[in-house]
Design a protein that fits this description.
Blueprint lengths: L3 E8 L21 E2 L2 E2 L4 E8 L10 E6 L8 E6 L2 E2 L5 E7 L8 E8 L10 E3 L5 E2 L12 E5 L11 E10 L13 E8 L7 E8 L4 E9 H7 L12 E8 L5 E3 L6 E2 L1
Parallel strand pairs: 1-10, 3-11
Antiparallel strand pairs: 1-2, 1-4, 4-8, 5-6, 5-9, 7-8, 9-11, 12-13, 13-16, 14-15, 14-17, 17-18, 17-19
Amino acid sequence: LVPQAEFIFMDMANAVDGNGDGDYEDEGETPPDIVYFGRGGQNITIFVEMNEPLKRTPAPTLSYIYNYGVVGGDTVLNVISDSSDADSIEWYYDITLADGDTNDAAFHAIFTAQDRSGNPVENFVGADIFQVDNIHPPAFGTGTVVTHGEITVEGWFNGNTDSIEVKIPIVNPSTDSTLYLGGSVDVQLYNITRGTQWVTVAESDSIIDPGDSISFFRIFDSILTQLPDGTDLVLGDSIKVRGKVTDRNGNETIGTESTSKFV
């Protein structure tokens, strides 16, 4: 039998293993997500599954290279496993992905180990199936914000305001394809007078079309709902607005504030 290692990349953030046996087969348990893309700062587990048991001395180690095939990416060598099964077949390595433009793109995994006869593991499956996306959406300025309702007054929220329209530029897929099929836009407000932080209003919008000035709408009731107790709008408050764009891999870019402000 020729020793072979298979790499499986997992995001454990939502995994639930009630009895700690690692099989995630019992009622109420949630298995980890199998992932093929990650981003800087994300914690992932690299699961190495063997087709036969390994020697524990010397300890099997994991090494990995960012931006594989291109000069400049980081290399991490000889990481010891965080856990393994009693049969020495399943090996788990918990890592935090490095950030930075030079650590983008291809990710190459290397497993150094011996089977119980002392033969080195030289056959690998999935060593190059994972990619790192460390490129954030392009910087942008939040465009004009317009109020809608029966009677509107520029620069004012009033009792007739039923929604706001926020203009945000979205680049073409040729510039950043990761904004599509999973990218999103959020609208955020800040109460200059009494607020302490930016507040995201309502749910995200999916990115569908590119353009220099794409409209995103928020119902005014949702603005009032999202403002925490103590920062609800009262006469005299001033509000500023900005957009946030997130690509499908979770990289975020917060736009500069709109020049439109409201009282």
